[in-house]
Amino acid sequence: NNSVTTSLSLVAPAPKVSILFDKVDEAFMNTFSIECSVKALFGSAVSTVVVWRRLSDNVTMLNGIERVVSVETLRNASYVEQTLTFNKSVLEDSDEYRCEASNSFGTDELTVVLNVTADPPQIVSLF
Q1: Is the dihedral of CA 109, 74, 66, 118 positive or negative?
Q2: What secondary structure letter does DSSP report for 43?
Q3: Per the confidence metrics, is the pTM higher than 0.70?
Q4: pLDDT digits (tens, 9 = 90+) for 58-99
Q5: What phi, psi does 126 have (nearest 5°)?
Q6: Which of 1, 19, 25, 43 has the greatest number of CB atoms lying within 10 Å of its CB?
Q7: Cα(21)–Cα(33) distance, integer angstroms
Q8: Nearest to 108 by CA among 51, 57, 23
Q9: 87-105 burial code (b ≥16 CB/10 A, e <16)
Q10: Bridge partner list, 51
Q11: Distances from the Cα of 124 to the Cαs of 3, 121, 127, in angstroms?
Q12: Cα angle for residues 76, 15, 24 (degrees, 5° grid)
């Protein structure tokens, strides 16, 4: 009796993060978004987690934190887009923000530098 045993292993790629810009300049009191795209295997076989993190204090950016309007996620079987949206940015929002993705096959991350700028005050009248 000759028997052959064959095993099959699921091999999936580690996630790959991409961000369109590595530096974002925004005007004071603007509402704007930063998008993070992650290419990975999504579904019941592999759990891939994507988060935005503010680096100065290691805070995970979630809906309702400070001026963050939303962290919106769109996904299909091979990629996810997670958008971090700020409402009426202030100078204190200037920081580094990291998009992190991880699953059982690995991790990837990219950082974007946010610089919120304001025009200097102007004297419009002396009377």
Answers
A1: positive
A2: S
A3: yes
A4: 888 876 666 665 667 776 667 788 888 888 888 988 999 999
A5: -95, -10
A6: 19
A7: 12
A8: 51
A9: eebeeebbeebbbbbbbee
A10: 100
A11: 91, 9, 9
A12: 90
